[in-house]
Amino acid sequence: MSPPLAATVGPSTYWYLTRATGTMALILLTLSVVLGVIDVERYTTPRTPRFVIDRTHRTVSLLAVAFLVVHIVTAALDSFASIALIDAVVPFAGTYRPCWLGLGAASFDLVLAVVITSLARRRLGYRAWRVTHWLAYASWPIALLHGLGTGSDIKTTWMIAISAACLAAVLLAVCVRVTSGLRGQVGLRAAVLGLVVCFAGGTALWLPSGPLGAGWARRSGTPTSLLRPAVSRNPR
Fold first, then answer.
1. Which of 60, 89, 92, 62 lies closest to 76, judged by CA?
2. CA-CA distance, 225 to 236, in Å (whole number)?
3. Three-state DSSP class for 204?
4. Three-state DSSP class for residue 148
5. CA separation for the pair 46, 118 (Å, rounded)
6. Contact between residue 171 and residue 197 where contact means Cβ atoms under 8 Å apart
7. I need a surface site. Which of 76, 90, 104, 184 has the fewest CB within 10 A?
8. Which residues lie below 8 Å from residue 169, measured CB to CB, with a gap of 6+?
9. Do 38 and 176 touch, CB atoms closer than 8 A?
10. Reported confidence tier of residue 46, pLDDT bands at 50, 70, 90
11. What is the predicted pLDDT for the residue at 2?
């Protein structure tokens, strides 16, 4: 008796959806962070008024959240790995690559906090909302590490190129922001730039011995049952 269609096709479909939506969420989150870092409102013109830029930033951020939600749901529905929805909210509670999956949960929690406080912005006040809004910037490097640590495509040329482009975009945005306002808070701006440069350099040095190295699936915490040669798909 042949297995049900959902058992043979469903998980593979969810697997591809998880990979695609995760990649899109990273790209959109990177674009949202870049728009926020360079403070594009300062570059408004009569042809591109402030409300247009605000809406663009908001739309990109909402799209990132939408793709992120689909990424989480499809990962939970995929029967290849045991990932529960709770693992997307509670960091480091899962059994599949707990450290790297936990980083994804932490990034999602930060993004969720930004969304909730944005909806309640009028009640919280601008200052409280602004402080919480900075969590979006903290969620980005965590999301990038999550993708590098759990992604099954990290050894492919196109995924390496996307990750490098996202990293370069944020680094360039920080450089633009720092150099365009050297008259104020020089120390803080230099510290932020140094932090981003160290993160970029540390990530580049870590990749060859980490996700790009041999045996990463096992070292990252993939359950032994998924490392068997009989498994037809590459462990994520």
1. 89
2. 13
3. helix
4. helix
5. 27
6. yes
7. 184
8. 30, 31, 34
9. yes
10. low
11. 40
